[in-house]
Amino acid sequence: MNLQRLHLDKPLFYALLMLAAVSLAVVYSAGAKDEALALAHVARLLLGFGILIAIAQVRPEILERWSPYIFGAALALLLGVLTIGVIGKGAQRWLGLGLARFQPSEVMKLALPMMLAWFLGREGLPPRLWRLGAGLAIVAIPAALIAKQPDLGTAVLVLASGLIVLFLAGTPWRLIVPLLGAIGAAAPFAWHFLHDYQKQRILTLFDPDSDPLGRGYHTIQSMIAVGSGGFYGKGWLNSSQAHLEYLPESHTDFAFAVFSEEFGLIGGLLLVALYGFVVARSFWIAYLAQDSYTRLLAGAVSLGFFLAFFVNLGMVTGILPIVGVPLPIVSYGGSSTLALMAGFGVLMSIHTHRRIVEG
Amino acid sequence: MLNIPIKDYFRETKLFNARLTVAAAVAGALILLLAVRLAYLQVVAHKHYATLSQANRIRPIPIPPVRGLILDRNGVVLAQNFPVYTLEIVPEQVDDMDTLIEELGGLVTLGEADLKAFRRLLRERPRFEQLTLRTNLSEVEAARVAVRRPYLNGVELQARLQRHYPLGGLAVHALGYVGRINESEMERIDKSAYRGMRHIGKLGVEATYEKLLLGDVGFEKVEINAHGRTLRNIERVAPVAGKNLTLNIDAKLQALAEQALGKRRGAVVAIEPRSGAVLAFAATPTYDPNPFVNGIDPEAYRKLLDDPDKPLVNRILNGQYSPGSTIKAFLGLAALELGGFDADKPVTCPGWFTLPGDRHLFRDWKKTGHGVVTLHEAIVQSCDVYFYRFAAAVGIEAMKNFLAPFGFGAKTGVDLPGESEGILPSPEWKKARGQPWYPGETVMTGIGQGPILATPLQLASAISAIANGGVRMKPRLLRSIVDAKSKVAREPEPETYPELPLRDKHHLDELIEHLTGVVHTNKGTAYGIGYNAPYKIAGKTGTAQVKGVAQGESYVEKLVPERLRDHALFISFAPVEAPQIAVAVVIENGGHGSSAAAPVARKLMDYVILGKTTAPPQPAASENNE
């Protein structure tokens, strides 16, 4: 099969297929060998790849033209969630749409960088100050809406995906440094706006043993799973932490804990390397991109993917607070997989529609 | 897009690539951080986490404790635990579930509900666990399964303890029952204390003393493999049985009381005045609590609910009745105690009373009137006009303040859940409901009619206070708490209410003399039980109107439908010199207190004081029904 003619990037596509295979193995084991669950996951992965291939066919110019509309639609969906959203897991993140339910905040992860890349790409880079200001507003509005759901993890990722574009677009360091300082100074104030459970999650990160059966429980059990896996792991389907139900959400947010317990350090490092490869290849695509819009977008998609992966692994290994961020591609979960696949579709479109063929 | 000058394009590319490099470097560093973190957790700290993971394989399996017994004061068992056979199945050992269930269906009765519950367990529980298919197998069914069991893979016959009330409905309104823990209880209870248990006290003593009866869950610590299957037992912590409770109730007296009420609807409470001990707590009709233990079937429950006699209603705690003339026992004391009314002055009773400036006639039960009556005659003959005058003279506030220390309008504090407060009305009470107080209501309160309501328990408690020299004891069912193992009994101290605030203690003796006259003088309304009594009884009859009788109309019992006939009441204690028992009797639509209610009290007194039973009580032993 000629992947190039299908507008697919061969290395990236194969790496994603490998991630999908890992995903199946983990979901099957963590989901207590539930075949129906595994089948649903396969269906979702297939759908994801379908979306990826479909988007890869669309020329970047068309994506660019449509960016503001896609962003507008995503924003409308977010507002919809806040008003008529179905309450799932205590937070309004889901929008019931007949048969399927999905999280509009996931759409925003892609729609926001597209909007910003379009907005900033209309003029030469680095952007002028007023554009930067407007860009910040474009970032802040959806992030605030998602934080209000409340979905702290996704809000931070969306916020990050927007700030990444601003950074890549060339926001001067003399603005970035004071901004980071301001964020640091504002943190204690932001603390007051967090929900109690969100505060607890951050607190327990520093001392999980303070409340081993309560807030620290997830972190401790997750670290037990990873640590007890050792060098070689316990073998596939032998995660006792997942099967004895000590690990919560073992097939979704804590999929990596199950994987590490079963495949040990070797498996864990290989998986990290695989993710590293996907991130590196995405960066390469961004590097080869030829105009502001595609560069900014490709860079944002790459870094967004990296961040999701890093935040999840950080949470599973106990170096970041527990926020509900799934492991990209590998975790069982609908909206997030589809959104990521769409992002990779965009990357492939950017890469395969270049005017000057790479030498 | 590409209309940017070439120079700018290169500058832009350079800028972007620089930024991309920074981002890639940060990403690379963070990925390295993750790799280091993984290596730390999985190599350096591996031992630590492996130990913790191993500890996660030790699973405590709860062993439910034996629930404490409930006994009467003489050791008669009122609630016990009865071994019942349950049919359980280990799904993974079964070759073909449908065939097996079909075969079992030929040995035991399998209802649609049993199958439904089992299928749910089958979906939710691991396949190596024993899942209940049927509980409460009869001996015959258990035997049939036992014979076939060697040929049935995965079938287990288990003997488990289940709550059983051997005397059926006897004292059910005091005992209550246990039932399956429901969802709202699940949220309320400490789940760790109920591990492995499915029942909780729902009503009565079973609910009040749930914590004592429950006991402590034991544990068997077992090691399990990664899939949850038991590998070996490590340690066993034995459960601690719940405390046995001895009640003040005397089962024979209780049976006597229930039989004395017979098929009538009513309530009898007997209290030992000096301690507040509840000797009998009979409300009829009763019902069998045993079907409730494992969830009564909806049809049987509906039948109980729809029964016009309302057997599920606890008439002693929640039946709120007009006290009728029994209130005169207390207002008679008020007449002596309170200013504004001269109890030494006889009153003329023409058979009716009117308030000044009002044409409404308040009639005496005796149409022709009682003539000139003293307080003694007014109580003995239950003259209404005397108390109309008294009430009109002292007013509602004074009566309310006098009756409150007797416990009217407040819970008695008995050790049972869900007690009603009755109503001790006052103008403020009516105002709070947006209604004005009518002077006529003051007058009616004088004879225990109008808005005033009391539960049988309140009446018993109030008369006990008089029997006990003005000190009211908190009524209590619990006699002692017995440790099931050491047999050490602990008797809680009786609790008392503040002494009645009497101006002159001799008034109490005088009142008791009048109350004795009710039973022992030939004009007394309860002379029917007093003329041949070998001991002295003090009491007061009452007849509470159910149907309002219009002005100018008269009440003829035979012409009134049974459900609208008057309630019969009697409150009393004996022996007068050293009271051993105080009894309140309420018989719904029973007619007159003198003829219907008083003889019931006499039977209980004979038993307690003379050790005599007019009819040998035979508590109906109920079958452990299917």
TrEMBL record, chain A:
GO terms for biological process: cell division; cell wall organization; peptidoglycan biosynthetic process; regulation of cell shape. It is a multi-pass membrane protein. Pfam families: FTSW_RODA_SPOVE (PF01098). It is found in: Cell inner membrane; Membrane. Its main location: membrane. The chain crosses the membrane at residues 12-30, 36-56, 68-87, 107-122, 129-146, 152-169, 176-194, 263-284, 296-323, 329-350. It catalyses: [GlcNAc-(1->4)-Mur2Ac(oyl-L-Ala-gamma-D-Glu-L-Lys-D-Ala-D-Ala)](n)-di-trans,octa-cis-undecaprenyl diphosphate + beta-D-GlcNAc-(1->4)-Mur2Ac(oyl-L-Ala-gamma-D-Glu-L-Lys-D-Ala-D-Ala)-di-trans,octa-cis-undecaprenyl diphosphate = [GlcNAc-(1->4)-Mur2Ac(oyl-L-Ala-gamma-D-Glu-L-Lys-D-Ala-D-Ala)](n+1)-di-trans,octa-cis-undecaprenyl diphosphate + di-trans,octa-cis-undecaprenyl diphosphate + H(+). Pathway: Cell wall biogenesis; peptidoglycan biosynthesis. Its EC number is 2.4.99.28. It comes from the Bacteria. Keywords: Cell inner membrane, Cell membrane, Cell shape, Cell wall biogenesis/degradation, Glycosyltransferase, Membrane, Peptidoglycan synthesis, Transferase, Transmembrane, Transmembrane helix. One of its GO terms (molecular function) is peptidoglycan glycosyltransferase activity. Belongs to the SEDS family. MrdB/RodA subfamily. Peptidoglycan polymerase that is essential for cell wall elongation. This is Peptidoglycan glycosyltransferase MrdB.
TrEMBL record, chain B:
Residues 62-234 form the Penicillin-binding protein dimerisation domain. The chain crosses the membrane at residues 20-40. Signal peptide: none annotated. NCBIfam families: pbp2_mrdA (TIGR03423). Pfam families: PBP_dimer (PF03717), Transpeptidase (PF00905). One of its GO terms (molecular function) is peptidoglycan L,D-transpeptidase activity. Catalyzes cross-linking of the peptidoglycan cell wall. It comes from Candidatus Muproteobacteria bacterium RBG_16_65_34. This is Peptidoglycan D,D-transpeptidase MrdA. It is a single-pass membrane protein. The keyword Membrane applies. Keywords: Carboxypeptidase, Cell inner membrane, Cell membrane, Cell shape, Cell wall biogenesis/degradation, Hydrolase, Membrane, Peptidoglycan synthesis, Protease, Transmembrane, Transmembrane helix.
